[in-house]
Design a protein that fits this description.
The chain is α/β, with parallel strands linked by helices and 422 residues long. It has twelve helices and 21 strands. It binds ligand LLP. Ligand LLP binds next to helix 10 and helix 11.
Length: 422
């Protein structure tokens, strides 16, 4: 999915569905995250079509965008959720999710988080270490219940993506070494308070090629054969998330490009009965959102031209953290302004505070810019650094807009802080 469909240019003005973006900027202020409901639906339908008639569950990776309105939209369409914290569990339940469609990933699950997930009745814990397995078994035993588990195995494949978002290599902290998995599964069998239901892996993010997935699948099939020999029957196979989106000129696979060969391979291996679980985050929301920002100042120096905007690395951390490239487009084209090369930077006191570099743009002070492909890992990774209130979030549906998170007030940022009496 590319952003053009839901953020069309009409009469020289960029829109979110049917609403001109300047209207949203006037009404809600900037910086502003704007999401398109139609884009969320389109992205979801791609997965839905790819699994039609199969036993499958698509669990939205909540960390990509955890606004309740977005979660609710996916919940309505039939999604499950992949969570990584007690906080995300609380969010998905507040958004109306069915707990039996929630899987819980993450290397550092705390006891309280495990207890709350057991109480809620989630579908599966994706266990990432022997120590976690023991903790989970103890807590479930104490609570007098049987907890459903998968092991998240690390298949040691290279997802060929940015090192910070590659997770399936041996040297990553994630998952259990695939060679150690059979013995850990046997250990799990010994615990009456655990029920083995699946196997799980997640090899990375922004993956633009299905080959690493299929490599991982082959390794999982070998593992599953071993488990069957050990008398372990699984109900599902979770291949994680990771499908990429188009930021610049990438041509990422469609969900069906991944899922068709997976279903074929499973059937050929006599495992057609296994439910396939996926945990896509970015590919469901990334191109459904833009970050709207206004140019505060233009500053020309000897070395570079800076467009200083009112959004910053605290609002969209991806460029600072991963040197990520996001498209930047003027919201209103103005033929009279000459195009120059600009670094689009925020007001934060760090040289790393940039959003885009070396962009040919016709800019004037006060102009609005849309930073594209900002629906995933945008707001959800934002912070209040420099005591900057986090941006507002708006969901657009045709001609309607809904403020789904108001801008934070400055006072609220420190309202809970205390000065000691002496
Ligand atoms: N499942 C697990 C266990 C994960 O760790 C992740 C993402 C996902 C699913 C969803 O992956 P996706 O479909 O979104 O690629 N902040 C980085 C991305 C970090 C991804 C972390 N894990 C970024 O902005 O690029």
């Amino acid at each position: 999915m590319s952003p053009e469909h839901s953020f069309p240019l009409r009469n020289g003005v960029l829109h979110a569905e049917d609403i001109p973006l300047p209207e949203l900027a006037d009404r809600y202020g900037t910086p502003l995250y704007v999401y398109s409901r139609a884009a969320l639906q389109t992205a979801w339908q791609r997965y839905e079509r790819a699994v039609a008639g199969r036993s499958a569950l698509i669990c939205f990776g909540v960390k990509a965008n955890s606004n309740l309105a977005v979660l609710h939209e996916f919940q309505r369409m039939g999604a499950g959720f992949d969570i990584v914290s007690g906080g995300e569990l609380a969010r998905v339940l507040a958004a109306g999710a069915r707990a039996d469609r929630v899987v819980f990933s993450g290397v550092g699950k705390q006891s309280w988080e495990i207890r709350e997930a057991i109480t809620a009745g989630i579908k599966c814990f994706n266990v990432e270490s022997a120590a976690e397995l023991d903790r989970l078994a103890d807590i479930a035993h104490e609570m007098g219940v049987v907890a459903p588990i998968s092991l998240r195995v690390n298949p040691d494949v290279d997802a060929r993506t940015h090192p910070y978002i590659s997770t399936g290599l041996k040297e990553n902290k994630f998952g259990v070494d695939i060679h150690q998995a059979p013995s850990l599964y046997r250990q799990a069998l010994q615990h009456a308070s655990l029920k083995i239901v699946g196997v799980d892996c997640h090899i990375g993010s922004q993956i633009t090629d299905i080959a690493p997935y299929l490599d991982a699948l082959e390794k999982l099939l070998t593992l599953i054969d071993r488990l069957i020999d050990d008398g372990i029957r699984l109900e599902h196979l979770d291949l994680g998330g990771g499908l990429g989106i188009r930021y610049a000129d990438e041509t990422p696979p469609e969900p069906a490009d991944l899922l068709d060969p997976v279903f074929l391979r499973l059937a050929a291996h006599g495992l057609g009965h296994l439910q396939v679980v996926l945990e896509p985050g970015r590919s469901l929301v990334g191109n459904a959102g833009v970050l709207l920002t206004r140019v505060e100042y233009l500053k020309r120096t000897e070395a570079r031209n800076f467009a200083i905007v009112d959004a910053a690395m605290n609002d969209l951390m991806r460029p600072a953290l991963y040197e990520a490239w996001h498209g930047v487009v003027p919201v209103e084209a103005r033929a009279s302004t000459p195009t120059e090369t600009w670094d689009v930077v925020g007001p934060i006191c760090e040289s790393g505070d940039w959003l885009a570099r070396n962009r040919a743009l016709p800019l004037e002070q006060g102009d609005l810019l849309a930073i594209l492909s900002a629906g995933a890992y945008g707001f959800s990774m934002s912070s209040q650094y420099n005591t900057r209130p986090r941006a507002a979030e708006v969901l657009v549906d045709g001609q309607d807009s809904y403020l789904v998170r108001p801008r934070e007030s400055t006072r609220a940022l420190f309202a809970s802080e205390r000065i000691p009496k002496r």
